[in-house]
Amino acid sequence: MNQQFTEFQQKLVEDFRAGKIGLPSMPSAVLQIRDALYNQNLSFEEIDRIIQIDPALVVTLIHVANSPFYRGESNITSCKGALSRLGLGTTRNIVTSIVLRSAFQSGDPRARKLLLQAWRQSCHVAAICHVLAQFTDNIRSDRAMLAGLIHNIGTLPILNHLLKTPDLLKHPKELQQLLHKLQGLLGRQLLRHWEFDPELCVIPVASSNRDYDSGKDEIDLTDVVVTARQYVILIRNRTPESEERFCITPSFQKISSDWDSNDEKLSFIDNEEQQISEMISTLSS
Question: Which domain holds residue 163?
Answer without folding.
Answer: 108-285
